[in-house]
Here is the input.
Amino acid sequence: MAGVASECSPVPFQPASRGGGNEARVQDIPNPPDFLETDPSLPDLMRKAQAGDSRSYETALREISRMLRPFLRSRLRDPDAQEDLLQEILLSVHRARHTYDSSRPFAPWLHAITRYRLIDYLRGAKKRNKEIADDSVMETLVARDFSPSLENMEFLKEALFRLPENQRRILELTILEGRSPREAAAILNISSVNARVISHRARRSLGVILKELGYEDGRIDQTTLF
Amino acid sequence: MKTDALIKQLSSNAKATRLYGSPGALLAPVFALSVVISFVFLYLFRGGALLPWTEFPPASVLEFGAVLGIALSAAHLAATLAIPGRTIRPALAVLAVSCLALGAVLIERALGDSSGRWSDFPAAMFASVCARDILITAAAAGVPLFLMAGKGAVLRRKLAGFLLVLSSASLGAVLLFLFCERVDAAHLVFCHYAPPAVLSLAGIFAGRVLPEI
Here is the structure.
């Protein structure tokens, strides 16, 4: 365990400030000794998982989720974002599991992956805040109380029709069919990173098109429809 | 997808994985392969014109050691970055000391160099055979290094790319000791050591080829 002490400087934990709408800052992410108290059985579970034991792997992933949830709750306010980030971390753990040495502590390995994913998310949050302004038109259009009248559906179809095919397809999957970005990526046979990029561009383009078509404050200007 | 469903999907597809191993054990054969590739390329480009070892001046031993230290430590750092959570401080210290040692040697050479060839820059670098050789051997020797890092789980891809190209290009500079007889500071700085520095900046973008975890 001396190896752990040399790897991690004992920085005292500083909880993120909870201002209006502010998420955690990158500087607030603490080092492993303050970050996680890992289950001592995890190295053994991961070793068995690396050997192909599904049950041990499932137990290990559940234990990792149990450990990470309080940490993510302290960093992100939105429960959906917490779950998204947790799933991203689990996927990264899955892709990187062959690099873990079971004779070494588990916390630094998991911490490095978690920190990387959290930093990635926080950096993307700024871009997403800008996306919200473009998304608001689209979200209103597909809200539950959206009246599926003939005019509105034709309006949406017209707007989608004006998008490039790959952008239209990804919005059809994620918004109209309610699939997750990962599922959409699998259906379209592209990477999830690529799906997110295309989805982001599609939403921005659709917001512009909807405004051009006269959608504003829930009213549709019929004269601009066709 | 719910987290529970994701966990079930990931664990149901669990197969035995081939472990990545420790950075040192991985690096040794890969670095040796890179050395061989670099040497073969340089030998072919230079028409087999190896310098005799008896003409290796004492002052160059430190320079040789410093450049080799840069090549080795950069590769070791990149191998360490392929394993999440590993400390990079020891290799980083070696890299820093090697860079300082090289800098000291070059300053000492420059102060004692009265050849007046500093005005040849930048033409010297772009027209130099040595710089060309470093560029080509960096590309060739970098392949096994990138493959080694790609099999791991690199979190900091830009940094890893920078280090991998720095290592492969510095390896070219190391092996040029066996082929290039020039010892004037201007030639060494612009044609042996500036190319690896410039190429390693391009390595930041080359790091994108490493798979994202």
Notes: The radius of gyration of chain A is 22 Å. Chain A has ten helices and two strands.
